[in-house]
Amino acid sequence: MSLRAKLTIGTATAASLLLLAGTASAATPGAPGIGDPYYPNAGNGGYDVSHYDVRLNYRPSDDNLSGTTTITAKATQDLTGFNLDFVLNVSSVRVNNRVASFKTEKGELVVDPKATLRKGADLTIVVTYSDAPSKRSVDGYTAWRRTADGALAIDEPDAAPWWYPSNNHPTDKATFDVSVSVPDGLEVVSNGTFAGTVKQINGWTRWRWRSVKPQATYLTFVAIGQFEVRHQVAPNGQPFVTAYSLSSDSADDEAAKASVERTPEIVEFLEGSFGPYPFEAQGGVVTPGINFALENQTRSTYGTAFFRRGANTYVVAHENAHQWWGDSVSVHAWRNIWLNEGFASYAEFLWSEYIGEGTAQENAQFTYDLYPADSPFWQVLPGDPGADKQFDGAVYDRGALAVHALRVAVGDQHFFEILKTWLAKKKYGDATIEEFVAHAEKISGKPLVELFQTWLFTKGKPAAAPGGQVGIAAKSVAKPKSFDQIRETHRILSQS
Description:
Elements: H1 3-21, E1 28-29, E2 47-59, E3 64-75, E4 79-85, E5 90-95, E6 98-99, E7 101-105, E8 108-112, E9 122-131, E10 144-146, E11 151-153, E12 174-183, E13 187-189, E14 193-199, E15 204-215, E16 222-225, E17 227-233, E18 239-245, H2 250-260, H3 263-274, E19 282-287, E20 293-294, E21 300-303, H4 313-321, E22 330-331, H5 338-354, H6 360-370, H7 393-425, E23 430-431, H8 433-444, H9 449-456, H10 483-495
Parallel strand pairs: 1-4, 2-12, 18-19, 19-21, 22-23
Antiparallel strand pairs: 2-3, 3-9, 4-8, 5-6, 5-9, 7-8, 10-11, 11-16, 12-15, 13-16, 14-15, 17-18, 20-21
């Protein structure tokens, strides 16, 4: 199906949904999934969450995680029951202070409140639980990682079900309070602003964090262990919190600091292309135990491998670009992953240009020439890669080429106007590629469907690099100084 046809169908579908929304129906259980084609069981229907209060205790010696998550939400239909995405052992569930029946199956916590919840009703859902998260898996996968001195709950697209119950999809964002009690000598790092610690009489300390802007569940993280935590103030007055694992290699640690401590400078640079930074705090966490980086809201997390060859500001630019592309404006469905990765990858081209290590055009030309026409690289469609190729290198590299193709087609003035107005229009919401294409056409006044059809939805190598030359060997072109580090960043990301 062509991109233009998708745009037309999307408009008709939206109109149909509006008509259906007004149709009365009998109370039913909420859907067990939100309808994402890539992950049918992700998210849930029937309610919208406004806030999560996650209050936990963690004992590293036996990986015991226990506590209570309180969810405030609103019913979006008459409900006889609803699901939460969760894999741990639950001891009790209450809905609006009444004990509810529940069962768990295949990563779903199915709740029966014993009375119909009317559309528009306020819901307070309290789930109490205790388990060893690392022993729980769904289809052989777990997002909870034990480390030498603690644990990490960090992953994409799934992390939340291994430490708190949720409506686990980017289309249902909420605010968060996260507090975790751990034995003295350990630190706990999460999103947003630090709300202090509370010393407890049993030799434990509770660490508290608060996120006041809408936040997707997979972007909510916790890192527990021995960290050097730095509390600073960014030039714009925001809290700037960084944390470095004390169990990592000291040489890598210094290289990481030389990179992540520059986050406010990089955020300031990115504001010039994307508009005002959308959140209340900045920072980063560097830790062993993961071989990827993830754009956790306000506090991206980096595996130590990114700094094994020295400082790497490109990965910092990539993850902080996601604060706009993916965090503030999230995917409406995971098929739209290009809206996250294409623009975060292109931010590396922009950063390269800014620090004088290669222009965006040079990086685009070299990337295009690097992959021969018969490479499997050109068979992955960034606009709809499939769940198994969602984080393929082509989504990053060909995705960045698609962004550069847009820039070449509309010119710099319209290009940056498109980006800034899009991010302002969709702030704290979610979006589709088709909506972005329509927005770009409106701002630029140019037909762009064919361009995006070529770069995002058509297999095979396009005839020429955007704004560049046809069919020249990469080895015959001067390689930008930034290129190897950008490639290494994307290789680690795409293999994670």
